[in-house]
Amino acid sequence: DAGVIQSPRHEVTEMGQEVTLRCKPISGHDYLFWYRQTMMRGLELLIYFNNNVPIDDSGMPEDRFSAKMPNASFSTLKIQPSEPRDSAVYFCATLRAGHFNYGYTFGSGTRLTVV
Amino acid sequence: AQRVTQPEKLLSVFKGAPVELKCNYSYSGSPELFWYVQYSRQRLQLLLRHISRESIKGFTADLNKGETSFHLKKPFAQEEDSAMYYCALSGNTGFQKLVFGTGTRLLVSP
Q1: Are the beta carbons of B95 and A100 separated by less than 8 Å?
Q2: From CA B49, how far away is CA B39, in angstroms rounded?
Q3: Would you write out chain B's pLDDT as a tens digit for each of its 110 residues?
Q4: Contacts of B109 (CB under 8 A, 6+ apart)
Q5: Gyration radius (Cα) of chain B, Å
Q6: Pairing mode, if any, of strands B99-100 and B72-74?
Q7: Which of residues 20-39 of B touch A (CB under 8 A)?
Q8: B90 touches A at CB < 8 Å
């Protein structure tokens, strides 16, 4: 198993541009989470899905952020338009239902820099 | 509401010294607690789960419900322990989302 796969690993973009981050979960994992990591605030949960359905998006900062999971193998996090304060590392994590005590499996993250 | 507090942003020790990374939590029910570790620019990895009562890489953590704490300890720190450590909490009934503390950076100097 290749684990949780995120792309790209690094993204540098100009303010105002659209940014799309991608995540491929582990096969069979029913839950998918998007986290944002910054020095000041640590790890913040943005949104999570269960069986491709968004369950809780209360952590999404504002309308510029959107996330989709069109199928069990793929999810995207989009920022449009991007701003310098969005610069952070974005992690995707997944979890198999019934294995709640085993913790999440994280991807390698996407380091986003908005200039 | 669930809350995890890691009071120290940075903990700096010398190789061979004991280490204790503090974690306090607030939760009305019965919690599940975890420690995650993130080595430089790598993904977060699960280090410990309180339910398994295991020792990983020499680290242990005991859940103290009276003090609502789950401190991470190691008797003799190694340079390769230098990393970011996150304490995390969820409920223990079915699925509940994981809430992380703000993390503590451990720096072990030779």
Answers
A1: yes
A2: 18
A3: 789 999 999 999 999 999 999 999 998 888 889 999 999 878 899 999 887 777 888 999 988 989 999 999 999 999 999 999 999 998 766 667 888 999 999 999 99
A4: B12, B13, B14, B15, B79
A5: 13
A6: unpaired
A7: 32, 34, 36
A8: yes
